[in-house]
Write a structure and sequence with these properties.
This protein is an alpha/beta fold. Helix content is 31%, strand content 21%. Bound molecules: guanosine-5'-triphosphate and magnesium ion (MG).
Length: 195
Amino acid sequence: MRVISAEFFGGAVDERGWPKDGRPQIAFAGRSNVGKSSLINSLVGRKGLVKTSGTPGKTREINFFIVNDLFYFVDLPGFGFARVPGKVQEGWGPMIEKYLLESREMRLVVFLLDIRHEPGKNDLVMNGWLRHHGLPIAYVATKADKISRGSRAGHIKVISDSLGADADDIIQYSSTTGEGKDDLWKRISTIGGNR
Ligand code: GTP
Ligand code: MG
């Protein structure tokens, strides 16, 4: 995909902030610090479009970015935050769930997992929830540059077994090197019609 334009559209704390113009929306979900914002930047080839940080829980609103005037990328707050006040954290689950279930234009959940680690409890809960609701999922194993090529298959097997997914359906990705970009764009281009 040739990205001509990518712009911040807005941040939403509730339904009033969701774009509702018929353009498809592709959401990026995963635990805090897994690399959601970095992946969006790397996909669109704009380093500073989405703020990234070493501090987990940086992204607190649902942030919408419009790409090529054609569709939206949706940066969801990370789940499983360690360092934020409990009260704020409580509000994030329902906000994300409502968006994923009710936005008519939400077409694909790109689910990010760190290639180095076995999926955690929050990952499994999220995976079960997405499947229970029959949402279309694209699995992406992030930070692939951090492990050797030789150990990749073993890590992917641990992740696919744990999620009950096909190992071949997990896209290996590195926002640092751009590995996996073409595969993920291909997957994104297969999205279906509005619900
Ligand atoms: P929250 O907004 O807190 O939910 O985090 P996030 O999932 O958006 O993660 P973010 O993109 O901010 O990245 C977290 C950290 O991981 C940053 O220090 C990034 O530089 C680093 N990182 C992200 N992707 C990669 C990658 O592919 N390779 C390497 N080596 N580092 C990465
Ligand atoms: Mg982020």
